[in-house]
Amino acid sequence: MEKKIHALTLALESKFPLPILFLIPLLILFTLSRYRAKRYPPGPRGWPVIGNMGMMGQLTHVGLAHLAKRYGGIFHLRLGSLHMIVVSSPDTAREVLQAHDSIFSNRPATAAIRYLTYDRADMAFAHYGPFWRQMRKLCVMKLFSRKRAESWASVRDEVDVMVRAVAASSGSPVNVGELVFGLTRDVIYRAAFGSGSKEGPEEFIKILQEFSKLFGAFNVADFIPWLGWVDLQGLNGRLVRARDSLDRFIDIIIDEHMRKEKPDGPVDSDMVDELLAFYSDGDQGKVSECEELKSSIKLTKNNIKAIIMV
Predict the structure, then answer these.
(1) Helix/strand/coil percent split, the chain, to 5
(2) How many CB atoms lie within 10 A of CB 24?
(3) Residue 280 pLDDT greater than 60, yes or no
(4) Residue 104 — pLDDT band, cuts 50, 70, 90?
(5) Using 50, 70 and 90 to split pLDDT, how confident is the model at 249?
(6) Running DSSP on this structure, what letter comes out for residue 310?
(7) What is the DSSP letter of 290?
(8) Beta strands in the chain (DSSP E)
(9) Does residue 101 surpass a pLDDT of 90?
(10) How far apart are CA 246 and CA 252, in angstroms?
(11) pLDDT tens digits along 113-127
């Protein structure tokens, strides 16, 4: 029996090279996985590995409308290892957005978003659940309430500075775009960090711009995760440097706010002051379903930084 098996092995090796013998089991597994794969709505046939990524330039609202005419009101696209379902018909959209909204409420997070938001420690990309609901309550009641907006004297101060700058340039050309950009920069900075911070708004805007670029950058690893270690685009290094810059910048500001003595009378507090009222020195933000907001949510420094940046 052993001689027959040895003879068969020699015959196979003589007729088929070793790489082909290695690929045959992989082809069988691939075929079985395709056979057992979940059934998806109809859609354009994709290539192996990349799927329909070659069509990404066409996936605008116009391009998706053309595909809907061909494949129907609900169709399927595969972008690398990601499966995307496109809904175009009003009835199906109503089912997704109203009847089953809680199922589809989570936002997908790219590798850049997960890293720069300290693994979804913010509100924009947090998973739908108790933490997200309490974070939303915090933003509505504290950070972006009407009363809060009306109490920001810093905004009125910055507008007054811009008006005086325009008045001083009477009779001379004024670069309105530059003035509005400077006003927006200073308002955002003072609303977030206050006027007493020693750090500069120019550095903060540079960090903010790099975050914005990385959030929107195309990353092969988002679609083909097993290629993430290659980092052909150099994004991993940029992500590390961007978050390190944010940590150095905001940690100093948070520490300054924590050392600052609280005045007895009313004060024009900034966003960091409001968030530090819920600060807890722990590894993760914790939440419970209590009525009182301050007792129901505890924020870490990572939560505070992620909320400010996103």
Answers:
(1) 60, 5, 35
(2) 11
(3) yes
(4) confident
(5) very high
(6) -
(7) -
(8) 74-79, 82-87, 286-287, 297-298
(9) no
(10) 10
(11) 999 999 999 888 998
Cβ atoms of 105 and 136 within 8 Å: the answer is no
Written as six digits, the tokens of 163 are 């008006």
User: Which residue bears the tokens 């004024």?
Assistant: 174
CB 74 within 8 A of CB 88: yes
Contacts of 75 (CB under 8 A, 6+ apart): 41, 42, 43, 67, 68, 85, 86
- 180 CB contacts (<8 Å, ≥6 apart)? none
The secondary structure of residue 285, as a DSSP letter, is -
Residue 56: HSE in the Cβ half-sphere, 13 Å Cα cutoff:
12
Amino acid type, 159: V
Q: Does the CA dihedral 258-261-264-270 come out positive or negative? A: negative
> CA 235, CA 222: separation in Å to the nearest integer?
12
Tokens of 20: 């082909």
Q: How far apart are CA 130 and CA 136, in angstroms?
A: 10
Task: State percent of the chain over pLDDT 70.
Answer: 77
Give the residue from 256, 305, 302 showing the smallest Cα distance to 282. 302
* pTM, full prediction: 0.76
DSSP bridge partners of 77 = 84
Residue recorded with tokens 């609280």: 262
Where does residue 149 rank: exposed (0-12), middle (13-18), buried (19+ CB within 10 A)?
exposed
**CB of 79 closer than 8 Å to CB of 68:** no
Of 146, 148, 186, which is closest to residue 270 (Cα–Cα)?
Answer: 148
- Residue written as tokens 């809907």? 68
- 115: tokens are 């890293």
| Residue 126 CA to its chain's centroid (Å) | 9
Q: What pLDDT is attached to residue 10? A: 47
Tokens, residue 133: 């609901």
